[in-house]
Amino acid sequence: MQSKILSKRMLLGIILLGFILFAILLFNFILKNPIQGSSALLIENVATLPNQEYASVGLPVRLKIPAIGVDSAVISVGLTSDGAMDVPKDPTDVAWFNLGPRPGESGSAVINGHYGWKNNIPAVFDNLHKLREGERISVEDEKGVTTTFIVREIRIYDKDDVALGVFESDDGKAHLNLITCMGDWNQVEKTHSERLVILTDKE
User: Fold this and answer.
1) pLDDT tens, 39-65?
2) Which of 25, 89, 115, 150 could lock onto 181 through a cystine, CB 3.0 to 4.6 A?
3) What is the mean predicted confidence (pLDDT) over 65-92?
4) CB-based contact 101:70 (threshold 8 Å)
């Protein structure tokens, strides 16, 4: 009887030791592989964003901003687990928010991209802050149709601001809003302190 009790205790001890070793390995992996800071803003009540009919406008595939030399592939993203717009994995790509309208549809389409990539690797929106009102941005869709937008306004948000207004509009017109990071780098949180938003209107 005593040997059976000892065997059970040994088994429980082995299981506990295995769990502790797994936790240590996972912790070390996270420390060695920090997540690159997101250029996204938090979005509240995303379910209230209007459903769009996508009959006439194709999926965006390319973003061009001649004034700052951007000519990049567009990928499709949704939300992260913490309710922020996801970001592209490649620093040279941009990401379109697929829970909102497509660029050229009525409403506010949103595209984000990285700034200040790790190890000084160039990122697609490193020079987004140089854009000025009146400059042009174009999006090519999967059908080969290009839609042009004109910069209307430039805004700066704190990284923790809720920016639902960037993701929706109620004027019945087509808009495209671009988002990236700026400000100081927070080594602990692995992100920048601010978000730059470029608001544009369809030409």
Assistant:
1) 555 444 443 344 444 558 999 999 999
2) 115
3) 94
4) no
Is the distance from CB of 140 to CB of 97 less than 8 angstroms?
no
What are the CA-CA distances from residue 158 to residues 78, 128, 161, 184, 202 (Å)? 21, 17, 5, 11, 27
Task: Say whether pTM exceeds 0.90.
Answer: no
DSSP string, 152-179: EEEEEEETT-B-GGGS---SSSEEEEEE
At residue 73, the 3 state secondary structure works out as: strand
Distance between CA atoms of 50 and 158, rounded to whole angstroms?
26
Distance CA 36, CA 184 (A): 14
Can you tell me the distance from the alpha carbon of 176 to that of 43, in angstroms, rounded to the nearest whole number?
A: 17
Give residue-wise pLDDT tens across range 112-128. Answer: 999 888 788 899 999 99
Between 3.40.50.300, 2.40.260.10, 2.40.40.20, 1.10.760.10, what CATH number should domain 46-202 receive?
A: 2.40.260.10
The residue type of 70 is V
The rounded distance, in Å, linking the Cα atoms of 194 and 156 is 7
